[in-house]
């Protein structure tokens, strides 16, 4: 993480993207003097889903699932140390909150990003290539000015790359015509707070999506609408506004034990499993469901029912604009096999996120990249892309974070596995047990055949010693 005076000297690791995953990796790499690392992010600063930092909304993992604690509870960058630096340990202690507010998690991550060296914001990575003459990766980037217009191009050489470019908002095809609808507020939930004031001026608002973000947006809108004149519609494709699986044994699907089990399964079995496990990570936490019911019930105390319609099991077939100020949604109820139309004045698309495609960044590595039968990058147990032996023989590698759901299971985007995954990558990179990791993490034994823990990878190469001034 020290200053790097010679741009032609290879780094040990270049990180692309600074979200929670790569921020975790940077924090755990910080005390390792033998590693020379740098991380690039095109945004001007760290922000974690700012459009969904709704007052009172909480993250679905305990505070121990911060950037580092589950790999190194003695780290400088723990959530508890963040509270200590803010003189907030006692208030947190008496609050007795195992799950922190989403805004507080964002503030914690920004504290780490503001104080951790080696993070370069306003840097857009344009390409990653392999230089066979030097046996090194080339990472081309552009330093953006404050207006996000291109400025100075640059190139960094590195022995290893880690991709942590995160996810992007997902808009299903039938809803895409709404995105460019002029004069009618249509926003993705990730931008909700930026547009809440405008949305609330609409006579009728529809929320599409029956996951956690849809529930939080619906609850927030409900709380800001007058009783009896709520004029809200909430629809989703799932058969119910279903609670997230949060039983203790159910949570063991988010352990390293299950991740190892899932990775060892055949590709076809993994793909089939993922379609059945939506309630492990796409349901709604029971606290939010209770708050919605409480708010609706409160509005019946003086007689009448709130003007709010909640309908699961509905999909949007097509969508379009009527005149210049309204939207028409063509709906289908799957179980009833019935169809109807819904006219509304504003739409919030709580339709989730998808892994951001790696193809653009990895276009220069495509000849070296190995893929599965569906064309997805193959990722080994140590979070490395499977590359041509011409690269792997040199000890270099490309690691991925939160882009491996198809190989590592539902825990890939889970914050609770971020520190373990980062530690796994650093142990592989250094070729030693830099961070001792547990051999068993679940009471459940997944599968009849008990599989031993994945052995540490062999030391990939000799790391360049850091010299004075580096």
Describe this structure in words.
With 470 residues, the protein is α/β, with parallel strands linked by helices. Helices cover 25% and strands 20% of the residues. It contains 14 helices and 18 strands. It has helices at 20-29, 79-85, 89-95, 102-115, 176-179, 192-200, 212-223, 256-263, 267-276, 278-281, 286-298, 389-392, 405-408, 418-430, and strands at 13-16, 37-40, 119-120, 123-131, 136-144, 150-158, 160-163, 167-169, 186-188, 205-208, 232-235, 308-311, 314-322, 326-333, 338-344, 346-349, 353-355, 397-400. β14 and β15 (338-344) form a beta hairpin. It is globular, with a radius of gyration of 24 Å. It starts with 12 loop residues before the first strand and ends in a 40-residue tail after the last helix.
Low-pLDDT windows of residues: 464-470
Largest sheet strand order: 3-2-1-7-18
Give the class from helix and strand content and strand pairing: alpha/beta
Note the total helix count. Answer: 14
User: Got a strand count?
Assistant: 18
Dominant shape: globular
Percent strand: 15-25%
Rounded mean pLDDT score: 92
Provide the helix percentage: 25-40%
The largest pleated sheet is described as: 5 strands, parallel
Report the span from N to C terminus. 8 Å
The Rg value, from CA coordinates, equals 24 Å
């Amino acid at each position: 993480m020290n200053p790097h005076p010679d741009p032609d000297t290879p780094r040990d690791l270049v990180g692309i993207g600074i979200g929670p995953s790569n921020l975790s990796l940077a924090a755990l790499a910080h005390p390792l003097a033998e590693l020379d690392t740098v991380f690039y992010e095109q945004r001007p600063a760290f922000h974690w889903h700012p459009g969904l930092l709704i007052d009172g909304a909480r993250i679905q993992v305990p505070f121990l699932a911060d950037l580092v604690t589950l790999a190194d509870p003695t780290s400088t960058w723990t959530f508890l140390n963040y509270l200590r630096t803010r003189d907030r340990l006692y208030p947190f202690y008496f609050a007795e909150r195992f799950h922190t507010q989403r805004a507080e998690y964002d503030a914690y991550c920004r504290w780490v990003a503001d104080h951790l060296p080696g993070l370069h914001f306003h840097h857009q990575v344009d390409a990653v290539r392999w230089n066979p003459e030097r046996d090194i990766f080339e990472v081309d980037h552009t330093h953006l000015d404050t207006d996000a217009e291109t400025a100075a191009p640059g190139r960094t050489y590195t022995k290893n790359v880690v991709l942590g470019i995160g996810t992007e908002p997902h808009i299903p095809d039938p809803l895409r015509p709404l995105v460019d609808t002029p004069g009618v507020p249509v926003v993705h939930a990730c931008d909700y707070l930026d547009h809440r004031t405008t949305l609330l001026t609409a006579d009728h608002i529809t929320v599409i999506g029956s996951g956690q973000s849809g529930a939080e947006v619906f609850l927030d809108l409900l709380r800001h609408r007058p009783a009896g004149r709520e004029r809200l519609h909430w629809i989703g494709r799932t058969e119910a506004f279903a609670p997230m699986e949060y039983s203790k044994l159910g949570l063991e699907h988010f352990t390293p034990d299950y991740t190892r089990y899932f990775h060892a399964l055949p590709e076809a079995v993994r793909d089939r499993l993922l379609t059945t496990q939506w309630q492990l990570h796409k349901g709604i936490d029971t606290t939010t469901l209770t708050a919605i019911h409480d708010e609706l019930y409160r509005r019946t105390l003086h007689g009448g029912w709130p003007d709010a319609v909640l309908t699961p099991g509905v999909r949007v077939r097509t969508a379009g604009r009527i005149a210049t100020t309204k939207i028409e949604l063509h709906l289908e109820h799957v179980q009833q096999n019935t169809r109807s139309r819904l006219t509304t004045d504003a739409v919030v698309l709580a339709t989730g996120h998808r892994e951001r495609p790696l193809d653009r960044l990895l276009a220069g590595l495509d000849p070296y990249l190995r893929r599965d039968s569906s064309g997805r990058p193959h990722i080994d147990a140590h979070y490395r892309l499977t590359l041509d032996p011409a690269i792997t023989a040199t000890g270099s590698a490309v690691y991925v974070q939160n882009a491996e759901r198809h190989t590592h299971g539902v825990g890939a985007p889970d914050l609770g596995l971020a520190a373990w995954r980062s530690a796994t990558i650093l142990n592989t990179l250094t070729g030693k047990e830099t961070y001792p990791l547990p051999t068993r993490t679940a009471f459940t034994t997944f599968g009849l055949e008990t599989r031993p823990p994945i052995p540490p990878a062999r030391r990939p190469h000799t790391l360049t010693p850091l010299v004075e001034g580096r």
